[in-house]
Amino acid sequence: MATALEDIPSVDIMTELLRRFKCSSKPDKRLILVGPPGSGKGTQSPIIKDDYCLCHLATGDMLRAAVAAKTPLGIKAKEAMEKGELVSDDLVVGIIDEAMKKQSCQKGFILEGFPRTVVQAQKLDEMLEKQGARIDKVLNFAIDDSILEERITGRWIHPSSGRTYHTKFAPSKVPGFDDVTGEPLIQRKDDTAEVLKSRLEAFHKQTEPVIDYYSRKGILSHLHAEKPAKEVSVEVQKALSS
């Protein structure tokens, strides 16, 4: 049920008005973040989203939302998933097309997790071209595989709160236990050297050609993703203001 305007606290209305005013002066941006797992895309995307008033389009989340909402494309995607098939590139591009029409995407979007192949990049370009739009910038989170292994295999999580620790970069006070509750920490099953190795192989084989594709278009910026998050944020700002 919609909330009546008079029931919303004045401070919330003012905050939203100020946000919209700030957003109105921001340039439109259509961005793609590309990089291997653990390269820091998930850390930077909320910062970019807030700075430029963009919507964040993560293909996995959008697919689940389309299936849950039973949109025509969501129904087709569900049928493919139930048969154990991959959802087709055309379907995913169609779901992105639908998501882009939302009010929150008026100033543009951040795409993460797509495109993973050159064919997907071409289909995305064709769809945007029909709308008179195009990708403005692709941020490549470049990082050495050996650094990723150290980052990912050292990651430990407190399951109930989502607090994360790292054996080297952010250790808990007592190894293996959460600082706040004292409960045991776990490692996600994806955060192992074996799983990372197969994910990196897929990234190098499928997605590195996508980096070349956007490089030839002159819209690619390389980031030194091995640096601390704050330094990477500075590089992002430079890349997006150029």
UniProtKB/TrEMBL annotation:
One of its GO terms (molecular function) is AMP kinase activity. It is an enzyme of class 2 (transferase). Gene3D superfamilies: P-loop containing nucleotide triphosphate hydrolases (3.40.50.300). Its EC number is 2.7.4.3. It comes from the Eukaryota. Keywords: Kinase, Nucleotide-binding, Transferase. Residues 155-190 form the Adenylate kinase active site lid domain. InterPro entries: Adenyl_kin_sub, Adenylat/UMP-CMP_kin, Adenylate_kinase_lid-dom, P-loop_NTPase. It catalyses: AMP + ATP = 2 ADP. HAMAP family: Adenylate_kinase_Adk (MF_00235). Belongs to the adenylate kinase family. Catalyzes the reversible transfer of the terminal phosphate group between ATP and AMP. Plays an important role in cellular energy homeostasis and in adenine nucleotide metabolism. This is adenylate kinase. It comes from Cephalotus follicularis. The lineage of its organism: Eukaryota, Viridiplantae, Streptophyta, Embryophyta, Tracheophyta.
